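Section 3.1: Structural characterization of target chains.
Under the original work plan, the team committed to producing a structural model for every single-chain target entering the pipeline before any wet-lab resources were allocated. The record below documents one such target. The sequence was received from the expression subgroup and is listed exactly as submitted; it comprises 190 residues.
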Amino acid sequence: MTVDPRTDEGLMLAYQAGEVAAFEALYPRYRNRLYRYLVHQCGDARLAEELYQDIWLRVVNARADYAPLAKFSTWLFRIAHHRLIDHYRHHARDKMLLWEDAGEENAIENFPAPAELTPSAQLERLQLRQRIGAALAGLPEPQREVFLLAEAGGMSLEEIASATGTGRETVKSRLRYALSKLRHSLKDLL
């Protein structure tokens, strides 16, 4: 399979013009980034998958109105941000499953280790994921969102500010505080 050399924005404009292959080239570019962002934000792999599908449906439905006023990634993650806000408005965050409580057997199935690793190495990886998940879950919501958009989404401060409707300096402060809290929470791993 050859990689389409067009930019994300170019692919979205081609899709807007009716070229389905452009969407098929664009979709895999964001599959992992968007999904990881959603899993860490909502803490439930099944819910993340549901939100993920809904976000792509919104992209498909909004294609006629798409205008490349910002990077495609900013536009996509802004849709994700608003979808998460809508979800939280309808569901209390404290009633949702935490990421580390999704079930050990599901966590191992969703994150398979290479076959050559021993069971103890697999358990160690699981415990590490749980520690990182707990550290992320312990961040205040705005700090976690900024951190995930930067790390999982690969977005710049300006793109995050645009996607969340927040000032650049506020985004910068939230990211700095998130990194500081994560370093403190995981200092024994560093």
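The CA atoms of residues 158 and 168 lie 6 Å apart.
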